[in-house]
Amino acid sequence: MTSGALSLSNIIDIKGLGFDAGAHVLIKEALRSLAVGQVLDVMGINTGGEVSLAAWCRAQGHSMQWDTNQQRALITKGGVFVGRWQGAERTGHSDSSTLHAIQDQAQPSWGLAARGATVEAGAPQWSFRLNQKAKVWANNAAQLYAQAVAAQWSPDEVIDWSQPCELPAAVEAAVVQVMTYMVENENAALIVPAKFLGQLHPHFREIQALLAIQVADEARHIEVFTRRIRLKGYEPALSTVGGQASLKTLVDEPDFSLAAFLLSVLGEGTFVNLLNFLQECAPDPITRQIARLAAIDESRHVAFGMAHLTHHLSVEPALRGRLALAVESRFDHLSGTSGLNEEVFDALILLAAGDITPKAIQQGYQRVQGLMQAMAEGRKARLLRLGFTPSEASRLSSLHTRNFM
Amino acid sequence: MTKTLMMGAVAYAPKVVTIWEGFKEWFYQHGLAFDYVLYSNYERQVEAQFAGEIDVAWNSPLAWERARRIAKAKGLTVEAIAMRDTDQDLSSVLVVRNNAGFTDLQQLKGKTIGFGAIDSPQATLIPKDHLRQVGMVAGRDYHARLFDVLAGKHGDHIGGERDAAMALVNGEIDATWMIDGNYQAFANEGTLPSGETTLLARTGLFDHCNFTTSPQADAVLIQQFTELLLSMRWDDPAVRPLLELEGLREWKVGRTSGYELLARAVDDEQFYDQRGAIIEQHYRY
Fold first, then answer.
1. Residue A236 in contact with residue A341, Cβ under 8 Å?
2. Tens digits of residue pLDDT in A47-69
3. Which residues, in sequence order, are CB contacts of B254 under 8 Å at separation 6+?
């Protein structure tokens, strides 16, 4: 090819920029628009620059001719770097609202690539077990995540830890026992999404983000419950075999949808009732404030569980039978345990009583009875929304663990 | 029983195992029984070629030159059957600081010039030869400071050239040699500050590594090995990672026309004698 055959777009003047100063970037960009075999005329090469240009071309698979008289290089574009992208895969679309943005099956080779990126063929095979849309997706995941981000709160800013909080010793001890129980339950609620987070294919970015912020929510709850325990210098109180056995069945559940059902729909849903109860009945303003804030977060977790199961059931109606079976088998598994920690149940009564008089205790007991009814009704309502018949919903709600979570 | 082609390679970095394990599997899938032996230095590897231990060696240019000399002295034949596209037409450059004001090689008389490992073709032997051709001899006309990293590896380890480049930037030496591609590589990584250095000289073109056959190698196996190498395609995602690790886009048919500068340097700098014996007294490997 003679220089006369070059079009204007095939000429670049790098104006003396050195190859120790990024000149290769200008040339690479100029070559990008050329076809393999086309020639780029490079002018303005500084003294000695042709040596580095030749080395760069060699490494990139382009050939170069150097015209000493005119101090210009003719680069013929090679094909090797084009070859790199043969067989490359597109990985959906970054915007989840776009048609086919979320693929039904995320491929092992897509790995950590941003959804929508083009992935070179031959990439490592990643073992993300949760790689099917039906089994993890929720249609409102992006909105729920946005809500979660907007609703984050700082324990130091939104809770006035200096408020007066003088309770009878027995009532303070009851609050400490309930908070001890809450920390234990929130540990389970943190570990379950954290465990799935590492198994989830990053293709499902919105779900990944939701699980991550759910973990952060639980860490914050554990912090504020612990601070409430220590407010008057107490250490955490009692932890029972029955309570931990119940929570272990949640942590051990390997199926994402079953875990979402047991933890979020039934467990955290029941927990929202408990937090609402504390918001209303706790004897001190700090505990009431903590409960109000945690309830907002937990409601979001329940909403995600419901949305996911609604999606999964829409593509796999048979899942409903497995959900029922999961509740039954958990009930069977826990039949040998005592269920709710007796100390916790009694502490709830004391806490709602606010004092250690017969009249106060009677009132506290009635409130806890009301809580138990509200929990059962809430579970039943959510089961109905997931398409269970009224009788099934009542039966399954009654089989739910006595440990609440 | 299928005969296995044995290849020698020098373990200059941990990635060598990854590379040849990958090749071994690929050759196996394409019907060639292939295995490799790692040597700690090129001298032992070349000697192994004449002791009948290996059929072919992945040789540095200096190892090729030694094998060629030994073979010639013994009346045997060794051949360079294949090389990387990136092994052909290389050059080395002499880098100076801009603020030193050097514009001509003769201005380096009495100064200190940095080189790589004692056995590095690109950073020591060919550069010394280049200076000798313009009348400058180490010890007589200038002081040579070697940045001797991993002798026996024939300069495969980039460390010596990098150490020399840092010494140049720090003002410990007045000029230093490196292979042409390393000038931009050292700038990219920040070792050479942008715009503060310039190239004062460039050697002639030379070739780098090649697959060197051993005298007793089975010709049929060698032919199969060569054909398979040349059939490797960058477009193939199963092959591309191996080629990238080894630093090439495609294998080329071997040639020996690119070793003349090194052959002259080996004589003039008295590294090997005509029979391939090591005569450089300071060489430890």
1. no
2. 889 999 999 999 999 999 999 98
3. B79, B80, B81, B82, B83, B210, B211
Run of H or E including B83:
strand B80-84
In angstroms, the separation between the Cα of residue A18 and the nearest Cα of chain B is 7
> Smallest Cβ distance to B202: which of A51, A58, A86?
A51
Among B179, B234, B244, B248, most A C-beta atoms within 10 A, so best to mutate, is B234
pLDDT at A5 over 70: no
Which tens digit of pLDDT belongs to each residue from A112-122? 999 999 999 98
Half-sphere exposure of A136 (CA within 13 A, CB side): 28
A58 and B86: CB-CB below 8 Å? yes
Is there a contact between B184 and A51 if contact means CB atoms under 8 Å apart? Answer: no
Q: How far apart are CA A189 and CA A233, in angstroms?
A: 26
**Distance (Å, whole) CA A49 – CA A267:** 69
What band does A2 get if pLDDT is binned at 50, 70 and 90?
Answer: very low
Cβ separation of A19 and B198 shorter than 8 Å?
Answer: no
Considering only CB atoms, which chain B residues are within 8 Å of A121? 237
- Inter-chain residue contact B184 with A122, CB threshold 8 Å: no
Structure tokens at B197: 């250095």
Low-confidence ranges of chain B (pLDDT < 50): none
CB contact under 8 A, B235 and A83: yes
Q: What angle do CA B110, B116, B120 make, to 5 degrees?
A: 120
Report residue A66: phi and psi, to 5°.
Answer: -110, 125
Distance CA A292, CA A146 (A): 20
| A chain contacts of residue B198, beta-carbon cutoff 8 Å | 47-48
Contact A261, A400 (CB under 8 A): no
What is the pLDDT averaged over residues A25-41? 95
Which among A231, A243, A336, A208 has a CA at the least distance from the CA of A283? A231
What region does A48 belong to: left with phi over 0, alpha with psi -120 to 50, or beta? Answer: left
pTM to 2 decimal places: 0.80
* Per-residue three-class SS string for chain A: CCHHHCCHHHEEECCCCCCCCCHHHHHHHHHHCCCCCCEEEEECCCCCHHHHHHHHHHHHCCEEEEECCCCEEEEECCCHHHHCCCCCEECCCCCCCCCCCCCCECCHHHCCCCCCCEECCCCCCCCCCECEHHHHCCCCHHHHHHHHHHCCCCHHHHCCCCCCCCCCHHHHHHHHHHHHHHHHHHHHHHHHHHHHHCCECCCCHHHHHHHHHHHHHHHHHHHHHHHHHHCCCCCCCCCCHHHHHHHHHHHCCCCHHHHHHHHHHHHHHHHHHHHHHHHHHCCCHHHHHHHHHHHHHHHHHHHHHHHHHHHHHHHCCCHHHHHHHHHHHHHHHHCCCCCCCHHHHHHHHHHHHCCCCHHHHHHHHHHHHHHHHHHHHHHHHHHHHCCCCHHHHHHHHHHCCCCCC
Give A56's contacts in chain B (Cβ within 8 Å).
Answer: 181, 184
Partners of residue A120 in chain B, C-beta under 8 Å: 237
Is residue A1 predicted with pLDDT exceeding 50?
A: no
